[in-house]
Write a structure and sequence with these properties.
The chain is α+β, with helices and mostly antiparallel strands. The protein contains four helices and four strands.
């Protein structure tokens, strides 16, 4: 499982799963290092890539779970640059806006998203803003 801050929408359970994968891998590597079947260089390679990812994901999870009680149960993180489109799709899915709205009717989706944004909290995922409810 892999997550990154290029995704438009992320489920918090995917982040939790990835943290668990990386922690398990880290535990295994530390054990192998202590047993002598792993070199210090191999451990440093993990720390440089996967370890950095683990730290980033832990930071995100800590920040988001502070604001959102249902983090472990699954919450949606919406990338800031996708938020307007997300709001449009959500309103159509909820039946609040007709799917077949005529072309001559124009909706200011940016303003609509801005109005809905008050129900969301910003969290940082490696320098990228995501919104979570």
């Amino acid at each position: 499982m892999s997550t990154d801050n290029n995704q438009d929408v992320i489920d918090s359970r995917d982040i939790i799963e990835r943290i668990e994968e990386l922690e398990s891998e880290q535990t295994t590597l530390v054990k192998e290092l202590n047993e002598g079947s792993l070199t210090e260089a191999q451990m440093q390679a993990f720390d440089k890539d996967e370890g950095e990812e683990l730290d980033t994901l832990r930071s995100l999870a800590e920040e988001a779970s502070y604001y959102v009680a249902g983090w472990e149960s699954g919450e949606t993180l919406i990338r800031e640059t996708y938020f307007t489109e997300y709001c449009k799709e959500m309103l159509i899915d909820f039946g609040l806006i007709p799917v077949d709205i005529p072309d001559y009717i124009k909706i200011n989706w940016d303003q609509t998203a801005e109005n809905l944004r008050v129900d969301y909290t910003e969290v940082d995922y490696a320098g990228v803003t995501y919104y979570i409810r």
